[in-house]
Structure to design on (658 residues):
């Protein structure tokens, strides 16, 4: 399966790791071409982020391990795109 | 009939199958070119997903069987596109 | 008149016909090039769908007959586009 | 004046004329290239439609006469575009 | 100054002038290339319209005079675009 | 610094200056290529406007002076874009 | 890691620095190609801004130092994009 895009819900402590460390770890994972880290919540102790990763033949397990390795926590996988191109979700109409 | 896009409402247990297993099973179905799996609900026991599949001459029965084979459950088919190209829905104005 | 797009409000019983049967019947109608069937309502007994058909020189009567022939019911025609190209509706501003 | 787009508010009785008759009558009017008829209201006796007509050198009087000739009623003209190209409305910001 | 787009708030009596008369008068003003007249309000006595005029070296005074000459009333100028191209407004974010 | 776009909040008295005077004064400022003046508020005495100016090497001080010189008042600068191209704002997601 | 876009939440006192000073300082930082500074809040003493910086091999530490050097305050980093191209965030659907 050619994994082309992954969207992850990731938390980190406010003090560390730095967002640049997380971005660097993700970019170094096999198959990753680019990453967007968007902060969606800042709490007293933690920062909530949505992480969008694009590439070709992304190694999903290595990607999650890379994030864990920085001290950040992957809470859930919210979207996967696989195949010969990126296909956007068609939202439900009912 | 040349089936080009299918949108399915799919549930899985939280523990298994993995979303990557479902994506791999779908991608292997006849006629499938790419798939987007988006999580729309996380409950205590289950995860609700919207699955968008694109391709050419998609084998609808084989596609549903492939998903069932992973242990996930297809609840409903929410959109079908067939013909010589993908046509978007024109929403009702009344 | 060169009919190029039709949007129909169609209902079917939950058990039958299958949506793939309706799509196949529509695709076989004269002038039809592609079809989008979107489910907008699932009730106890029936499924409500919005059907968008595009093509050239679509035979409107044959299209409605094809849908009726599957056992589904055409409730209303909600949009017609005719002429030398597809023109989108300009919505009213008052 | 080169009239290029007209948007009309049109009503018809539920029973007749057929929407396809109205579309055919509009398409036959001088200067008309394409037409979109969108149903915006279905009442007990009548059907309310927004009719968008595009073309070049559209004959406005002949267009309205063509619609009247089918038994439908033009209630109002809601937009006119004239000139050497189609210009969209810039909505007011106050 | 090269005036390229003007948006005007214009009223007319319901009975007259016809919208086609206003469009013809605007189109004949110096520098005008195209015009969109959109009805935004229909009251008992009057019709409120938003008029978007595009062109090159539009003569603003002649444009307003042309509209006044038909019996319609220019209430206010709501947007002006001038220069070597049309630039859209960037809306305020606070 | 190559200033490429400026968005200003500007007020004027209802009677004067004319919007066309303000547009002409802005267009004559060094580096300005085009300007959009959009009215966002009409009060008893004053008219509130959002002014979007685009160009290359825009002289910010001269631009503000040009507006002041017409008798209009610059209340605030709401956006600046500088560099080798125009970059749009990415809005905050939290 | 090739840092290509950074979005920062920045505050400044109303009196100083000028927004043009901040833009000039950012534009001079290593790797920066263009910057958008949008005012999102004006308070009694301070002005809140969203700063979007694009470039190639942006030096994150030098960028933050450049802003601090003008007397403005970086409150938080709200988005980072790194890799071989700019990837937009895919928002969560649950």
């Amino acid at each position: 399966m050619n994994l082309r895009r992954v969207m992850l819900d990731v938390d980190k402590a406010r003090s560390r790791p730095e967002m640049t460390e997380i971005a660097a770890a993700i970019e170094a994972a096999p198959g990753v071409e680019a990453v967007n880290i968007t902060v969606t919540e800042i709490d007293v102790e933690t920062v909530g982020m949505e992480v969008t990763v694009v590439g070709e033949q992304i190694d999903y397990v290595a990607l999650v391990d890379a994030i864990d390795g920085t001290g950040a926590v992957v809470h859930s996988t919210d979207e996967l795109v696989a195949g010969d191109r990126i296909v956007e979700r068609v939202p439900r109409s009912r």
Remarks:
- Residues 18 and 42 of chain D are 14 Å apart (CA to CA).
- The mean pLDDT of chain D is 97.
- The two ends of chain D are 31 Å apart (CA to CA).
- The interface with chain B takes residues 38-42, 50 of chain D (CB under 8 Å).
